[in-house]
């Protein structure tokens, strides 16, 4: 295991002590995590920054690049998101999301996933930056690297959480988060289970019986986990190093339970215990739960926002699903995959080789894109209302650009949130310049800024973005991911800062 | 150096070995002479056509003693690497049932039902990839708490004590409980450290509470601990010498391996007694246990069905959905397919008549098990209750609803999916996934005029597709007579369906076939298919396969196993239990290599 990053005591500690003195709380009690939410509110009012949080989001079905791309009238800092067919409109739709988020997003065009495969498995590359071999990535994902390996998630009750809508499958097509060695992590598809995971043990009120019982459960749990930990350690001691990895992961996994047992959180004014979500009749696509997916997604978003606001976790991933069912609210065919994603005929925009597409196939895919981006916007709305958007970084992507070609090039890439000011937000970045031939029989009603892509214009892989995000979290690395060409994994995305 | 002479006559094989080695070796070889099969190390069958098989001397001490790690000519012995593996969800359920079964209110409820799904390798859930991650750790924690609470009602039997209020005797009772229940949970006697640790847990639970509270906490701890959750293949706990390259599994490890393989659950009392008495070192004793479990334990039959399900991915029928616009009757037939896939395999396995309980029957049976609704779907008649149905034309498991529906799309048949499964799981042709070759897969668009087979015509025409797809589609096209839910069809889009196929893959069943039923008959008698079946059983039994991270280590072991398996007479080779018994009686089962 890599040594933990040494945590520098932030200056807000000074203010925290002042606050605690002010409310007459002793230092010992002050170490319990349930004071933190109140602290956060206070710290914010003192103009301090909260710890940085990361949320990774994966959308289905790639991208309709023709509607996503910057328009001729747009520039890096001044751009329109409200034109017809703009998939990014939710980020500038205060009538729906309470405010415009234009100044807190970075939209990137021309970023590729270095998965080295064509297909849905490229989803695994979004947070690992790894080429896919034998259907798996080769290294840990960025969220786990930051949360677990570098210890940034250890201070919270839940080190990290992985949520998904509709599919619990443990394969590269459906997973964003991977442990050491590229092993996919289980996801929670049921909002009730997510609630249990995030908020179990949170004691409401001061009923002495409830508190006493919670304390007893703590003590019992600690005793049994001490034994379990010792037992795992004894077995681990007998193993060769390759085998030890299995138990290292198990030991790490006990940590979250131990943290929750060490000090149960208490709901306070600024961190309210969310209501237990209603149980859905089904949550898996294979059980026919597709009509519930929209509501399930919103339930997950709600829990995620609350968990971040209460500092229960600082690292999360969320896999979105499509709405492939008869009578879906987007008015799309029942099978989004075959009849929208694979029916799409794009122009190759963003992938270098341009050709004529079929414009009538673009809008259905754009509707899926807009619906998906709308979920990120909704997440931003809730985080903002709870006062934690400024200290959160969201990275939204998809496994593919052109979905009918299964092309992992020019994937939709949106960074969102305040990110504690680590990135310059409110911009559109194009990593390449692409040109649409003006001789196309049905030209677009607009012409994008056009320069021929030169032969030296090398592909830019999302590894650079992952490096940048790690650096934003204060982790001083300059490469991330596993690629056969080592040069690909090095360097940050300079455009961001 | 020595030369080996092999002589193969209708399945019997003799080894004649000329060796310049010690006299004792000579004697051992002479004794082993023309014996077949049972004793590990009596590997004689070396076909000259396969010089790549490792030279493996008949090492003296076939019962487990003998030279550590080297053959007579000094090469490394072929063994599987030592390791641990986590119980699969199904094995967790089986282990909990064995441990607490009588004490739980609802024996049919599977505690793992809410768990994150198992990772699969080669279709099998028992494999090396299983991990405990943060989500599963919490699920195990919650499940343990619930199971222990539910078992409280039976503590008078599970953890008897004169008084349940705390008294001077309580700790004595607790110690006895820990020793007994702990040994059953860990499938071996506890160590000193483990007993002491668990006593501390008891004390924490009983503090300012009752004896039962202490016992409950011990159960919670045991159900989440390493001794319960992981199966070890490490040998004795005492440290090995640095130059040791192999290790023999302990008697209790052998018992666990045998039990999980045959029953999907922990060793029963008879197996533990045999382990304690040191009997499991003997290959014959292990074989006897295999046969005993097959006879006596109902769980064995279900476990074998489970393995065969996973071999062909038939267990996915439970989660396979179809587009109701295309297959409106699928929803009502799905439970029938699920039941059939279980009942048919069970019936094949239960048939003790010669040559019946084996892969060729699975592939070529002209009957199945189902009720009249299923029979009607198969264009024949049946009875109200599920019973044996004679099938006029369909042959074997590949032409039954479950296989056809699982390996199809929601709205159409899928010759590529079906062909790929046949290639990988019946012919052991390692077909790579297109994305590993960097190939962009664009599904042919739906077409109101062309048939499915016609839409995939590019696979033949395009020279970059043809090399793999000639074989894959060659298999898959034979099934075109059955639509995406396994229903028989004569036409598609008003065009006659073409199920004829020509297999030219360099296999012993190459040839022209009218349809998948004719193909099934050929697969049933093919030695290549029989061998591939044996390989798959080995991969399931050893919880490793080509997909696993230690794949290179295990390929040699797999080939070694096949060499042993070939010593079975031909008519026994397709038999599931006999094939597993070859593994269980071999040194591959009892020993592991050290890194």
Spell out the blueprint of helices and strands.
The complex is a heterodimer of chains A (497) and B (595).
Chain A: H1 12-23, H2 27-30, H3 36-45, E1 53-59, H4 65-68, H5 94-97, E2 105-109, E3 111-112, H6 125-128, H7 142-149, E4 161-164, H8 191-199, H9 208-236, H10 241-262, H11 293-309, E5 315-319, H12 336-341, H13 362-385, E6 392-398, E7 413-416, E8 427-430, E9 460-461, H14 463-472
Parallel strand pairs in A: 1-5, 1-6, 2-8, 3-9, 4-5
Antiparallel strand pairs in A: 2-7, 6-7
Chain B: E1 2-9, E2 12-19, H1 23-32, E3 80-81, E4 83-86, H2 89-100, H3 134-151, H4 155-158, H5 170-186, H6 192-206, H7 211-222, H8 226-229, E5 230-233, E6 246-248, H9 251-263, H10 269-276, H11 283-296, H12 298-311, H13 330-350, H14 359-364, E7 367-370, H15 372-377, E8 387-390, H16 401-406, H17 415-426, H18 452-455, H19 458-461, H20 466-477, E9 491-492, E10 495-496, E11 501-503, E12 511-513, H21 516-524, H22 527-542, H23 551-565, H24 576-584, H25 587-590, E13 591-593
Parallel strand pairs in B: 3-13
Antiparallel strand pairs in B: 1-2, 4-5, 6-13, 7-8, 9-10, 11-12
Notes on the structure:
The complex is a heterodimer of chains A (about 500) and B (about 600). In chain A, helix 8 runs parallel beside helix 11. Chain A has helices at about 10-25, 25-30, 35-45, 65-70, 95, 125-130, 140-150, 190-200, 210-235, 240-260, 295-310, 335-340, 360-385, 465-470, and strands spanning about 55-60, 105-110, 110, 160-165, 315-320, 390-400, 415, 425-430, 460. Chain A is globular. Chain A folds into 2 domains: about 10-50; about 50-190 and about 280-495, Alkaline Phosphatase, subunit A, CATH 3.40.720. In chain A, the strands form 2 sheets. Chain A has a 7-stranded mixed beta sheet, with helices on both faces. Chain A has a two-stranded parallel sheet with strand order 3-9. Chain A is built from 14 helices and 9 strands. Chain A has about 500 residues and is of the alpha/beta class. Mean pLDDT of chain A is about 85; it is low at about 1-15, about 20-40, about 435-445 and about 445-450. The two termini of chain A are about 30 Å apart. Chain B is mainly alpha-helical and about 600 residues long. Chain B is about 45% helix and about 10% strand. Chain B contains 25 helices and 13 strands. In chain B, helix 5 packs across helix 6 and helix 9 (about 250-265) packs antiparallel against helix 10. Chain B starts with a strand and ends with a strand. The model of chain B is unreliable at about 1-70 (pLDDT under 50).
């Amino acid at each position: 295991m890599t040594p933990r990053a040494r945590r520098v005591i932030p200056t807000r500690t000074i203010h925290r002590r002042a606050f605690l003195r002010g409310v007459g709380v002793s230092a010992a009690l002050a170490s319990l995590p349930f004071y933190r939410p109140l602290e956060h509110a206070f710290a914010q009012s003192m103009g301090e920054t909260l710890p940085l949080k990361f949320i990774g989001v994966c959308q289905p079905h790639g991208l309709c690049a023709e509607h996503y791309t910057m328009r001729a009238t747009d520039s890096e800092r001044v751009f329109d998101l409200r034109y017809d067919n703009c998939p990014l409109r939710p980020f500038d739709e205060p009538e729906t999301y309470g405010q415009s988020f234009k100044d807190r997003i970075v939209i990137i065009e021309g970023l590729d996933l270095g998965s080295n495969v064509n297909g849905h498995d490229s989803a695994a590359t979004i947070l690992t930056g790894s080429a896919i071999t034998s259907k798996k990535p080769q290294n840990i994902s960025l969220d786990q690297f930051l949360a677990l390996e570098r210890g940034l998630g250890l201070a919270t009750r839940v080190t990290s959480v992985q949520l998904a809508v509709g599919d619990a499958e443990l394969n590269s097509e459906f997973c964003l988060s991977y442990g050491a060695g590229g092993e996919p992590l289980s996801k929670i598809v049921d909002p009730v289970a997510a609630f249990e995971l995030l908020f179990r043990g949170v004691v409401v009120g001061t009923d002495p019986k409830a508190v006493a019982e919670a304390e007893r459960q703590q003590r019992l749990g600690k005793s049994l986990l001490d034994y379990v930990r010792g037992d795992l350690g004894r077995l681990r001691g007998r193993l060769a190093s390759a085998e030890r990895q299995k138990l290292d992961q198990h030991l790490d996994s006990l940590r979250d339970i131990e943290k929750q047992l060490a000090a149960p959180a208490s709901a306070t004014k600024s961190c309210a215990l969310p209501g237990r979500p209603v149980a859905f009749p089904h949550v898996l696509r294979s059980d026919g739960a597709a009509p519930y997916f929209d509501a399930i997604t919103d339930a997950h978003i709600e829990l995620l926002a609350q968990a971040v606001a209460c500092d229960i976790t600082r690292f999360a991933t969320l896999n979105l699903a499509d709405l492939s069912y008869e009578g879906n609210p987007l008015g799309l065919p029942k099978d989004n995959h075959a009849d929208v994603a694979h029916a799409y005929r794009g122009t190759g925009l963003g992938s270098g080789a341009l050709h004529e597409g079929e414009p009538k196939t673009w809008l259905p895919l754009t509707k899926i894109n807009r619906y998906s981006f709308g979920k990120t916007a909704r997440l931003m709305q809730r985080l903002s209302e709870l006062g934690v958007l400024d200290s959160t970084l969201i990275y939204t992507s998809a496994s593919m650009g052109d979905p009918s070609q299964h092309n992992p090039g020019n994937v939709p890439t949106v960074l969102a949130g305040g990110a504690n000011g680590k990135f310059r937000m409110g911009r559109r970045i194009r990593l390449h310049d692409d040109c649409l031939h003006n001789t196309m029989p049905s030209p677009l009603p607009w012409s994008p800024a056009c320069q021929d892509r030169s032969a030296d214009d090398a592909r830019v892989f999302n590894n650079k973005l992952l490096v940048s995000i790690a650096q934003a979290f204060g982790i001083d690395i300059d490469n991330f991911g596993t690629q056969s060409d080592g040069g690909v994994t090095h360097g940050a995305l300079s455009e961001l800062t | 150096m020595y030369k080996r002479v092999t002589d193969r006559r209708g399945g019997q094989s003799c080894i004649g070995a000329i060796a310049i080695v010690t006299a004792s070796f000579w004697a051992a070889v002479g004794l082993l002479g023309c014996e077949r099969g049972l004793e590990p190390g009596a590997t004689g069958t070396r076909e000259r056509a396969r010089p790549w098989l490792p030279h493996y001397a008949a090492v003296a001490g076939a019962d487990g003693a003998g030279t550590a790690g080297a053959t007579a000519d000094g090469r490394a012995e072929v063994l599987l690497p030592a390791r641990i593996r986590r119980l699969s969800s199904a094995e967790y359920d089986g282990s909990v049932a064995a441990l607490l079964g009588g004490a739980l209110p609802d024996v049919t409820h599977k505690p793992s039902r809410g768990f994150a799904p198992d990772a699969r390798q080669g279709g099998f859930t028992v494999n090396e990839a299983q991990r405990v991650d943060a989500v599963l750790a919490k699920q195990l924690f919650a499940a343990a708490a619930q199971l222990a609470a539910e078992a409280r009602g039976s503590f008078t039997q599970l953890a008897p004590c004169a008084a349940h209020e705390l008294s001077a005797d309580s700790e004595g009772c607790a110690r006895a409980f820990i020793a007994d229940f702990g040994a059953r949970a860990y499938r071996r006697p506890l160590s000193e450290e483990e007993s002491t640790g668990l006593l501390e847990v008891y004390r924490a639970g009983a503090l300012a509470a009752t004896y039962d509270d202490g016992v409950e906490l011990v159960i919670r701890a045991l159900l989440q601990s390493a001794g319960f959750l992981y199966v070890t293949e490490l040998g004795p706990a005492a440290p090995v010498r640095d130059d040791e390259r192999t290790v023999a599994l302990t008697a209790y490890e052998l018992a666990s391996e045998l039990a999980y393989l045959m029953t999907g659950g922990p060793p029963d009392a008879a197996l533990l007694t045999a382990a304690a008495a040191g009997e499991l070192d003997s290959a014959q004793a292990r074989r006897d246990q295999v046969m005993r479990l097959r006879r006596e334990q109902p769980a064995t039959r279900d476990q074998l069905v489970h393995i065969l399900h996973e071999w062909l991915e038939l267990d996915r029928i439970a989660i396979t959905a179809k587009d109701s616009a295309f297959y409106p009757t699928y929803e009502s037939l799905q439970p029938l397919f699920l039941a059939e896939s279980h009942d048919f395999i069970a019936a094949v396995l239960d048939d003790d008549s010669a040559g019946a309980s084996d892969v060729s029957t699975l592939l070529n049976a002209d009957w199945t098990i189902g009720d009249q609704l299923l029979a009607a779907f198969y264009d024949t008649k049946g009875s109200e209750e599920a019973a044996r149905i004679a099938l006029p034309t369909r042959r074997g498991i590949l032409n039954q609803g479950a296989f056809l529906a699982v390996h199809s799309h929601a709205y159409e048949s899928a010759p590529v999916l079906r062909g790929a499964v046949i290639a990988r799981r019946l012919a052991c042709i390692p077909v790579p996934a297109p994305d590993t070759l960097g190939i962009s897969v664009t599904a042919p668009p739906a077409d109101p005029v062309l048939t499915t087979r016609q839409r995939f015509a590019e696979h033949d025409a395009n020279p970059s597709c043809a090399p793999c797809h000639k074989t894959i589609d060659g298999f898959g096209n034979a099934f075109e007579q059955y639509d995406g839910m396994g229903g028989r069809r004569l036409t598609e889009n008003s065009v006659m369906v073409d199920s004829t196929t020509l297999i030219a893959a360099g296999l012993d069943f190459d040839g022209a076939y009218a349809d998948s039923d004719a193909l099934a008959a050929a697969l049933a008698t093919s030695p290549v298919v029989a061998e591939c079946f044996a390989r798959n059983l080995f991969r399931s039994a050893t919880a490793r396969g080509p997909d696993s991270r230690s794949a290179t280590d295990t390929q040699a072991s797999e080939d070694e196993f096949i060499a042993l398996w070939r010593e079975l007479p031909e008519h026994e080779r397709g038999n599931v239990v006999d094939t597993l018994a070859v593994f269980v009686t071999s040194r591959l089962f009892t020993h592991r290599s050290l890194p």
